[in-house]
Every structure is written in C-alpha cells, then in structure tokens.
Amino acid sequence: MACLPSGRPDRRVREILSGRPPLPYIARMDSVTLPPDLQQFAAEAVAAGRYRDMSEVVATGVDLVRRLEAERAAFVKTLEDAEAEADRDGWSSLEEVEAEMRQVIRAAARPTA
Asked: Does some domain include residue 97?
C-alpha cells in the first residue's frame, strides 16, 4: 500500500479502499515544464506580443492538439464509413477503376454533334 512518510496510507489509497465512489478527477496544471527549445519559442512569442503570457501559449497549444485529435477522429470515421460501404456494396479492383476511368475519358473526348 502506498504510504506517506508518516507511515499512514496516502489519501488516494484511502479513498479507493473506502468503497465509496471516487471523487471526480479535476486536473489542475499549476506548472508546465517545456523542453528548452519550446520554452525559448514560447518566451519569444510572449516577448513579441503574440501572446499575453506563457499560460496563453500553453492553452493555445492544447487547443491545437484538441482540434487535431477531432480532425483525426473525423478522418478515421470517414475511413470506417468507406470500408462499411465497400463491405456492403462491394469492392472495385484497381484494374476495374482504371477501365472505368478510361471509358469516362474516351466519352468526354468524343466530339459532340
């Protein structure tokens, strides 16, 4: 069991062992440690006036990660939808697609009367 230096069980361990539902986890970031190159970039961005302070730089970065993850999830969904459609309606081989495209190109190249 995880214990404090006093030998008493840590608060989180006591909560788990109590059998009560866990308290909601609310993460609070009191500090963030950035690698030196990102720290320098962020400091320069604040000094240049592009951001109010380091917290705004970090919040902007986290927001970008959130957006990228949403875009990735949307992309994965389109792939899954396409696969489900192919399973439902059938697949086309590369040769079949090429032949169909050649027909479309030939038809578009024919002079109209």
From this structure: yes
